[in-house]
Amino acid sequence: MSVLVPTSLDAALTALADHPDATVLSGGTDLMVEVNSGHRRPEHVVAVSRVPELSTWRHDPVAGSLRIGAGIRYTEIERDPIASWSPALAQAARTVGSPQIRHAATIGGNVGTCSPAGDGLPVLRALDAVVELRSATGTRQVPFGEFMTGPKRTVRAPGELITAIVVPVADGYQGYTKVGVRNAMVIATASVALVVRGHSVAIALGSVGPTILRCPEAEVLAASSADFEAGHLPADVLAECCELARAAARPIDDHRSTADYRRHAVGVLTGRLLRRAFPNG
Amino acid sequence: MSTTETFNDTPAGIGSAGHLGRLGDSALRPDGIAKVQGTFEFSGDLSADGFLWGATLRSPHPSARIVRIDLSGAWKINGVEAVITAADVPGVATYGLISQDQPVFASEYVRFQGEPVAAVAANHPDTCRRALEAIVVEYEVLDPLVDPERGIDGSHPPIHPDGNVFRHQRIVRGDQTLVGDIVVEGTYELGMQDQAFLGLEAALAVPDPGGDGVELHVATQWLHEDRKQIAACLNLAEDKVHLVLGGVGGAFGAREDISLQVHSCLLALRTSRPVRMAYSRQESFLGHVHRHPCRIWMRHHADRDGHLVRVEARFVFDGGAYASTSSAVLVNGITHAQGPYKCENATVDGWAVRTNNLPCGAMRGFGVVQACFAHEAQMDKLAAAVGVDPLEVRLRNAMQTGDRLITGQVVESVAPVARLIRELAAMPLPTEPVGGSDGDPMRLPGGAGRTADVAHVRRGIGWAVSIKNLMYSEGFDDFSTARVRLADGVATVKFATAEVGQGFVTLAGQIARTILGVDDVVLDRIDTQIGSAGSTSASRQTWMSGGAVDGACRLVRERLFEHVGRAHGVDPLRLAIDGTDVVDTMGALRVPVAEATAGLEIDETFEHHHRPTEDLDELGQGNCHTAFAFAAHRAVVDVDPELGLLKVVEVATVQDIGRALNPLSITGQIEGGIAQGVGLAVMEEIIQTGGKVRNASFTDYLLPTFLDMPDVRIGLVEEPEPQAPLGAKGVGEPPTVSSTPAVVAAIRDALGKDLTRVPVRPTDIVF
Amino acid sequence: MADELGNQIYTLHVNGDTREVRDAWVGESLLHVLRERLGLMGSKGACEQGECGSCSVLVDDELVCSCLVMAASAVGQRIVTIEGIAPPGAPSDVQQAFVEAGAVQCGFCTPGLIMATHSLLERSPSPTEMEIREELSGNICRCTGYGRIIEAVQRVAVGRRGDA
Question: Domain A2-168, what fold?
Answer without folding.
Answer: 3.30.465
